[in-house]
Amino acid sequence: MSGRPENTLEQRRRLGGWLPRKEAELIAFRRDLAEKARGRAGLAPRTSAVQELAMLVEGDPVMRMDLTRAISDAIEAGYELGYSTIDELMDIIDYLMTYPPRFSEASLIHCPLNAVLDWRMCMPSGYAFFRDPVVNAKLKRVLNVWSGFLDGPHSREYLNTSAPEGWLSPKAQEQLGMSQFICDPDKPYWGFSSWNSFFTRRFKPDARPVAEPDNSKVIVSACEASPYNIQHEVKLRDNFWIKSQPYSLEEMFTARERDVAQEFVGGSVYQAFLSAFNYHRWHAPVAGRIVKAYHVDGSYYSDAESEGVDPGGLNDSQGYTTSVAARAVIVINCDDPQIGLVGCIFVGMADVSSCVIEALPGQQVAKGDEIGFFQYGGSTYCLVFQPNVVGSFVPHAPFDDDAPPIKVNAPVATAR
């Protein structure tokens, strides 16, 4: 283990349950995946998006060097990856293009590609590789292909009631709270047309009532999510890559939207993360008119070096990801002029490739109206407020990672 304490691998902080906390469970998953990928390699051509990624890396000496070194450095540090070459990695990624997620009572792997890339991301060469915009453009294509599979009927293999892998088995129903959602147990696959339709399932009417819909001072949670951080006096530009990961508004909203970012200087940011079992649709935290709605291309597997060899993967880099990861930005001009603009930033992390915006500029929304959704993967989001708007937030630090999430449409802050 190259001098690394053995228990380092067993003390992982895995927010949201997207990956197991115990390294042994991830090792077993990677071994199994690698064996299946080797068995299929050569039987059919690789998916074009995966082959394009492979050709990009193999054809660029710097990229090939960075990824090769990230793999070898991780292995030399004592981490078991399930592969040792770029070619073997690409075969595993190709196998995942038709991989339907399965439930597990003991070791849920909700983000399989994140599990495969774990540890490479936080090697010195891995930091550089996973920040490269050309690499991320190819990764986006790969993830879109997988999302396309998850949109289709063949992705429903584990939408059944059979334990232990069925998402509709008794244990899974209990963890997911399926009784709260719109579904029909009398229909095949309970009426879900695909894995993604199951993942983005909707609550039954009145399952999540909007808190004080006529009181503009009560700001509600845009997602079913657990508090991660609250920061005040945010700056237009800050060193988001350092240990404290301060929010940098110009990076969050992007330089092309600098005028919008400027409106929030000196204001507050509330950030929360979604769990693998949470509802994944977004709702308006206030009533008002949509003035901005746009996507931002970015990274998918980029960690902050300031966290060291990050024992929590992307989890402990969530502040950093708000400035660099793929995300959707929606800005609402609240009907209450004393609240003004509210920025909603929905960040796709790891295996997320689709942040789907439904509310477009010019549209009027009521508090609690649906405005978009995460199609798949680990996710975090921010609400950004102008200076002197928020009187108090409902949650207070220190936050309990294992506490129940704040329900969507429940109070998250009170305006002055």
UniProtKB/TrEMBL annotation:
Pfam families: PS_Dcarbxylase, PSDC. GO terms for molecular function: phosphatidylserine decarboxylase activity. It is an enzyme of class 4 (lyase). Its EC number is 4.1.1.65. Residues 49-176 form the L-tryptophan decarboxylase PsiD-like domain. It comes from the Bacteria. PANTHER family: PHOSPHATIDYLSERINE DECARBOXYLASE, PHOSPHATIDYLSERINE DECARBOXYLASE FAMILY PROTEIN (AFU_ORTHOLOGUE AFUA_7G01730). This is Phosphatidylserine decarboxylase proenzyme 2. The lineage of its organism: Bacteria, Pseudomonadati, Pseudomonadota, Betaproteobacteria, Burkholderiales.
